[in-house]
Amino acid sequence: MSLPPNPVVAPPHVLSLLDRLHDESIKQESVLGSYLSSADGFGDLMRDKFIALDKDKCHFVYQLARAIDARNIVEVGTSFGVSTIYLALALGSNLERSGGKGKVIATEKESTKAAKALQHWREAGDELVTRHIDLREGNLLETLKESVPTLDLLLIDIWAPVALPALKLLEPRMRPGAVVIVDNSISSASRYADLLAHLRSPTNGYINLTLPYSNGLEMSIKF
Ligand SMILES: C[S@@+](CC[C@H](N)C(=O)[O-])C[C@H]1O[C@@H](n2cnc3c(N)ncnc32)[C@H](O)[C@@H]1O
C-alpha cells in the first residue's frame, strides 16, 4: 500500500528534520503517559518536552494555511517550534506565489524552549523558515498585547487555562473568515470546556467542526 501524500513543499533536509522532531516528541510522550493529564508539577515536567502537534495534524494545518492563503498567523504555544516550521513553510510558499508580507507570530514562555525552537528553525533554514517567524518570548497574554496584524489563522495548542484568554485577546484582530484550530478538542474537551463553549455559542459568530483526528482537532471559522 502506498503512503498517504505529504502536502509539505520543502527540501529533503527539512522533511528529515520534521520527521526527527516528531519521532523525538512521540518517544517522550510514550514515556510521559498518564503524567500528561496530571496537574501536579505540570509546567516543570513539560519544560524539556516537545508535546508537538501530531504529524498528520501538522499536514492538515499546513494544507489549510496554503488553501486560505494565510499571511498572518498566530501560534498560541510554540514549545520547540515543530508546528511553527509547518506554518512558516506554508506562509513562505503563499508569499512566494503571490507576493505581499506576513508573519507567523510564535509564542513561548519558557526561554529554554524558545532557544531550542530557534535552533530548529535555523536548522531548517533562515531563508526558508526563521525569517517568517516573529518569536515572542514570555507570557503570551502579555506578549500578544503588542502589535498584532489582522489575522488569517490561529493555532491554539496550549495549556487549557490560557486558551480562552488568548482567543479573547486575539478576537479583535481576526478578519472575517479567520480560522481557529484547537488541538485535542475531544480528549481535552472537559479541560477546554470554557473555550469550546465560547466557540460554539451561537452569539459569538463562529461555525465549528470537530475533525476526526486522534484526540480531536477543532476547526472554527469566525464571521
Ligand atoms: C503543547 S506545547 C506547543 C507545541 C507546539 N505547538 C508544537 O507543535 O511543537 C504548549 C507550549 O505552550 C507554552 N505555554 C504555556 N503557557 C504559556 C503562556 N502563558 N505563554 C506562552 N507560552 C505558554 C508551554 O511552555 C509549551 O511549550
Topology:
Blueprint: H1 12-32, H2 42-46, H3 55-67, E1 72-76, H4 82-98, E2 103-108, H5 111-124, E3 133-137, H6 140-143, E4 151-156, H7 160-170, E5 174-183, H8 193-200, E6 206-211, E7 217-222
Parallel strand pairs: 1-2, 1-4, 2-3, 4-5
Antiparallel strand pairs: 5-7, 6-7
Helix pairs in contact: 3-4
This protein binds S-adenosylmethionine (SAM).
S-adenosylmethionine binds at residues 50-53, 77-80, 82-83, 107-110, 113, 139-141, 157-159, 162.
Organism: Oidiodendron maius (strain Zn)
GO molecular function: O-methyltransferase activity
Pfam families: Methyltransf_24
Description:
It holds the Pfam family Methyltransf_24. GO terms for molecular function: O-methyltransferase activity. This is O-methyltransferase. One of its GO terms (biological process) is methylation. The chain has 223 residues and is of the alpha/beta class. It has one domain: Rossmann fold (3-Layer(aba) Sandwich). It is built from eight helices and seven strands, in the order αααβαβαβαβαβαββ. It has a seven-stranded mixed beta sheet with strand order 3-2-1-4-5-7-6, sandwiched between helices. S-adenosylmethionine (SAM) binds next to α4, β2 and α6.
